[in-house]
Amino acid sequence: MPVDYRRIAGPEVTQRVVVSGEKALDKSLIGGDCLRRDGRKTDELRPIFLRSGVVSQARGSAYIEMQNTKVTCAVIRYGPRESQRQQEFSKKDSEEKELSTFAVRALQPAVCLVQKGDTSLVDPTFQETSSSDIDGRVTVAFLPTMNVVSGLSQDGEMTQDQSTKAIKCGMEGCARILPVLQEALVDTIKRTANSNCKS
């Protein structure tokens, strides 16, 4: 069978993020075995695979895989350019503009979670965020080494206590992602150094 060399060969197994603690459970999103539909605990992140420098023609690029979610990003080599012609149908709605502005400001490790009563689901799946049974959704961008929240977005109705708890949960999730990010960057630096030594 022919091999598609343009496709990034993802890992056989993704790296599991360290998880601690148990949370209160919501029966509509959580099964009787105290696990979510995909088998994770309420505060458990999906396994993560990261690699930077995946697009050789770009100044910077990255690939992230979290179970069925796979994303490749690249920095444009010669900088952004203004579009030659603008089309009426390509206008963004207000939510899309808000999310893109949030992403530009935060460009840091971020964790999204949904809230139902006293239960916070860290790193929710599409089905969990689409559930009509959730009270709200919080996305947190946090710099663990500086202990700074660089971005925060909240949708839905939550009490002040629920909101505070959700933000703390998001910050803890970001802190658990940090070692995986650091390992991916160290791996990239080693690969770059090895390729420079061979040249």
Helical segment count: 3
Largest sheet: 4 strands, antiparallel
Decide which structural class fits the backbone: alpha+beta
Nearest-angstrom radius of gyration?
A: 19 Å
Model regions low in confidence, pLDDT < 50 over at least 5 residues: 19-27
The average pLDDT value, as a whole number, equals 73
Strand content: 15-25%
Family: Belongs to the RNase PH family.
Protein name: Exosome complex component MTR3
Keywords: Cytoplasm, Exosome, Nucleus, RNA-binding, rRNA processing
Domain Exoribonuclease phosphorolytic: 44-87, 117-173
Q: Would you write up a description of this structure?
A:
- By secondary structure, the protein is an alpha+beta fold.
- Helix content is 29%, strand content 23%.
- It has helices spanning 94-106, 126-130, 160-198; strands spanning 48-52, 61-66, 69-74, 110-116, 119-122, 136-143, 148-156.
- The strands form two sheets. A four-stranded antiparallel sheet has the order 5-4-6-7, with helices on both faces. Strands 1-2-3 form a three-stranded antiparallel sheet.
- A hairpin with an 8-residue loop joins strand 1 and strand 2.
- The two termini are 33 Å apart.
Summarize the structure.
This protein is α+β, with helices and mostly antiparallel strands and about 200 residues long.
Element layout with pairings:
Blueprint: E1 48-52, E2 61-66, E3 69-74, H1 94-106, E4 110-116, E5 119-122, H2 126-130, E6 136-143, E7 148-156, H3 160-198
Antiparallel strand pairs: 1-2, 2-3, 4-5, 4-6, 6-7
